[in-house]
Specification:
The chain has 261 residues and is of the alpha+beta class. It has two domains: 5-43; 48-251, Jelly Rolls, CATH 2.60.120.200. The protein is 16% helix and 39% strand. It contains three helices and 16 strands.
Length: 261
């Protein structure tokens, strides 16, 4: 008996084998697509630079005693003007540490007296979207000053974007006109997760706190070809301190890290 076409096919290829072939034809392209997407995601979020300020960085002065140099060669002390007490500006300590970080960097406003001071680092790479993230705790005091979480580049001759946390906890955006952001308040004495993402294609930035977007499509303060210099610093006139931990710079948007608390 000749049978229909299905019978002929079944004779040539047993039904179980036919099913396996059909499954493979469907599954293999899907697996290939998932692997490609996973590889792209990993490449996008792979750290360009990161540190939790833990060992081998030693407790005590972060500066290495050689000008603006520090224990970590990727980082430098940052000071505007003369008279800044460099040895007292930044220390590695364990009194205030963020989850996942054995130590934290603490910056002292009083070291700057009448001058802005803090730390900065330069990140290699040519990512079109780059994000800087870190855990930050601003400590309360009698004379609180503003703190800056920002980035810039030589191609922009200075700042590109970021924000200042004012003494009352509100944000001041680093863009043309330096507008306030009254909807957001950063409390003192608790860990918060800060992130700023820069899109060089759009020349805009986005600000995140504890994984929640606060401001989107914020125009760059100045046009930039790269955003490679990150800095965290205090303004003059205060006696407070701030701690920095779990810093990471990576290509792509923020990872959506939750509150550090």
């Amino acid at each position: 008996m000749k049978g229909d076409d299905n019978t002929v096919l079944t004779r040539l290829y047993p039904l179980s084998r036919l099913k396996r072939c059909m499954v493979l034809k469907i599954v293999l392209p899907v697996v290939s697509l998932l692997v490609s997407l996973a590889s792209a995601t990993l490449a996008q979020t792979a750290p360009l630079q990161q540190t939790n300020f833990g060992p081998p960085i030693k407790l005590g002065a972060f500066g290495n005693g050689k000008g603006l140099g520090t224990q970590d060669p990727q980082w430098s002390l940052f000071a505007n003007g003369n008279g800044v007490n460099l040895p007292a500006m930044a220390r590695i300590q364990t009194a205030f540490v963020a989850p996942g970080s054995p130590q934290a960097l603490q910056i002292f406003a009083v070291a700057g007296h009448k001058h802005q001071c803090g730390v900065s680092t330069k990140v290699a790479g040519d990512a079109q979207v780059i994000t800087y993230e870190a855990d930050v705790q601003l400590r309360s005091s009698l004379h609180q000053t503003a703190w800056q979480f920002a980035a810039g580049d030589d191609s922009a001759h200075g700042f590109v974007g970021g924000f200042n946390v004012l003494p009352d906890g509100h944000l001041q955006l680093i863009t043309k006109g330096s507008p306030p952001q009254p909807a957001t308040t950063v409390p003192r004495d608790v860990w918060k997760h800060f992130a700023i993402s820069f899109d060089l294609r759009k020349q805009t930035s986005e600000i995140w706190i504890d994984g929640q977007s606060q401001v989107t499509n914020l125009p760059f303060l100045a046009p930039a070809k790269r955003v490679a210099i990150f800095q965290f610093d205090t303004f003059a006139g205060g006696d407070d301190t701030a701690c920095l931990a779990n810093f990471v710079a990576h290509a792509g948007p923020p990872t959506g890290a939750p509150a550090a608390h």
